[in-house]
Design brief:
The structure is a single chain. This protein is about 35% helix and about 20% strand. By secondary structure, it is of the alpha/beta class. It has a single domain, classed as Rossmann fold, CATH 3.40.50.620. An 8-stranded mixed β-sheet has the order 1-8-2-5-4-3-6-7. Helix 7 packs antiparallel against helix 8. It is globular.
Length: about 200
């Protein structure tokens, strides 16, 4: 049991979640940096406005990590803590394996159908399915999609996990840290993470 600010957030594996309606945001959320925080907050705000559960759908490990192209910026437990502090009702944690990555795009669309999204919030570069065959255009043919403008750092560069890793490699950890935590809410004792994902973290 972990404590966060806000109400209880349930963490569920992707095969165990079913909702009559939702607003969902989807992504690897590696590091839960300022851009991710903005995306999640937008989805949570819309969900509250229309009175449906707010869902964050993410992957463990992040795809780039699973394919060996990057090291994780935070642990799975750390990612869940940071996401939960942003106030979603449910975090869906999909186990990202090579078999999962090889599924057709239609399989992921079928997964999303189980939570009946009223709207899907994703970044413009979101891809899904084998060979990254699915993109925002395909997603938008099946579900209402919102793609917010990218958040940029003071230097005008879009905030991204790639940018954060580049700053760390360049020996600029303070700048990297600012992109990770600059807008992050403080921890508070009122929020608990309901760990339905037993044994995973």
């Amino acid at each position: 049991m972990l404590d966060f600010c806000g109400d209880a957030t349930r963490v569920l594996p992707d095969h165990a979640v079913r909702l009559a309606a939702s607003v969902v945001t989807i992504g690897a959320f590696d590091g839960v940096h300022l851009g991710h925080q903005s995306l999640v907050r937008g989805a949570v705000a819309e969900a509250r406005e229309i009175g449906v559960p707010a869902v964050v759908w993410t992957f463990d490990p992040p795809p780039k990590v699973m394919f060996g192209r990057a090291e994780p910026l935070v642990s799975t437990a750390g990612k869940l803590a940071r996401l939960a502090a942003l106030g979603p009702d449910v975090i869906v944690l999909a186990s990202f394996t090579r078999a999962y990555a090889a599924r057709p795009a239609a399989a992921f669309l079928a997964d999303l159908a189980r939570i009946a999204p009223r709207r899907v919030h994703v970044g413009a570069d979101f891809r899904f399915g084998a060979g990254q065959a699915g993109d925002v255009a395909l997603l938008a043919r099946h579900l209402p999609v919102h793609v917010p403008r990218k958040l940029c750092c003071p230097a005008g560069v879009p905030v991204s996990s790639t940018r954060i890793r580049a700053l760390l490699r360049a020996g600029r950890p303070a700048e990297a840290q600012a992109l990770m935590t600059g807008g992050f809410p403080a921890r508070a004792a009122g929020h608990r993470l309901i760990e339905d994902f037993r044994g995973r973290i």
